[in-house]
Design goal:
This protein has 161 residues and is mostly helical. The chain has a domain of 101 residues: Non-ribosomal Peptide Synthetase Peptidyl Carrier Protein, Chain A, CATH 1.10.1200.120. It is built from four helices and two strands, in the order H-H-E-E-H-H. Strands 1-2 form a two-stranded antiparallel sheet.
Length: 161
């Protein structure tokens, strides 16, 4: 079997996949999602800068001149022997909980900002009260039947056989 006969079905299938991908990209939702991801990344950098450069220094000063980036617990100090690249052969093992605290505050601030943004957007796109539509013929007929049954006197119960 020549190679052209083996490649032809794959080629036709990939052209269909390409057309499907083009249709997917042309949808407005994909572009909106891409813009949202890009804006979210930029917004995250702004919040990280706000936390690291504006909020944490006064908190660190109030706590006692502590730089949260430097807060860590050293499990094993670095070895004294240096490798050929000038780095220690046995690097230190450190739990940097200060950076974690800073990232946690970043997350909380981003979550609060997103919450406020969603609240504002929901308020802008609040659905308008729909006008009360006239009930359908079926609903009107069932309402009349219900009202007639309600107005009808109930017979007195007779003796139980």
């Amino acid at each position: 079997m020549p190679i052209s006969e083996r490649v032809a079905p794959v080629w036709h299938e990939s052209r269909g996949l390409y057309e499907e991908f083009k249709a997917f990209i042309r949808r407005g939702n994909v572009i909106d999602l891409a813009v949202g991801v890009i804006m979210g990344a930029a917004f995250g950098k702004i919040i990280s800068s706000l936390v690291g450069d504006v909020i944490m220094p006064p908190i660190g000063y109030a706590v006692g001149n502590v730089d949260f980036k430097d807060l860590a617990v050293t499990l094993r100090p670095a070895g004294a022997e240096l490798g050929p690249d000038g780095k220690p052969l046995n690097p230190a093992i450190v739990i940097a909980y200060g950076r974690f605290l800073q990232s946690l505050i970043d997350f909380v601030l981003i979550a609060v900002c997103v919450f406020v943004l969603v609240k504002l957007v929901n308020r802008l796109y609040k659905p308008t009260a729909e006008e009360s539509k006239a009930p359908s013929d079926e609903v009107r007929l069932l309402t009349e039947i219900r009202d007639l049954l309600k107005d009808r006197p109930t017979p007195a119960p007779g003796p139980i056989p």
